[in-house]
Each structure stands twice: as structure tokens, then as C-alpha cells.
Amino acid sequence: MQRIRSTFTLDKRVVDELGALAEELGEKKSHIVEKALTMYYDYLDIAVADKRLRELKEGKSRLIPADEAFRELGI
């Protein structure tokens, strides 16, 4: 997997806690952040699915039949 360096601005408390946890666990801070974000993405997937379902029920969006989608995609 390709690694990319990135810069973020975080609250000092978050950075301090991250540092303490990294030291306690003997892990790199970047590894802890990566694992935390991966777990949070799972939560966000559920939040997005709930939002889309709610919009569908409220009539703010509609389902597209598979045959129509395939036709538009040229499949």
C-alpha cells in the first residue's frame, strides 16, 4: 500500500492523548490514527446509508431500476 504524508491541525488534548496512547502501547501515532480512521469510516458508511434511506423514504431521492442504470452505462 502506498504511504502518503499528510498534515492536520488537531486540538492539543487530542494530540496529547494520542502521544500518551502511542507511548503506552509502543505503537506509532500514525498507526493508531490510521486504525482509528478505518474504524470511523465503518461508522460513517452506516451514517451515509441511513441518510440515503431516510431521503428515499421522504421522497427526496429515488431508486433507479438496474436495467435503466445498465442501459445508461452501456452495459
Structural features, described:
With 75 residues, the chain is mainly α. It contains three helices and no strands. The chain has one domain.
What's the short story on this structure?
The protein is mainly α. It has three helices and no strands.
Query: Roughly what fraction of the amino acids lie in strands?
Result: under 5%
Element order, helices and strands? HHH
| Number of contiguous helices | 3
How much is the radius of gyration in Å? 20 Å
Please report the total strand number as a whole number: 0
Shape: elongated
Strand count, sense and closure of the main sheet? none
* Integer average pLDDT: 96
Give the proportion of residues in helices: 55-70%
Q: Please tell me the total number of domains.
A: 1
* Poorly predicted segments: none
Q: What is the straight-line distance between the termini? A: 31 Å
Query: What structural class is derived from the secondary structure elements?
Result: mainly alpha
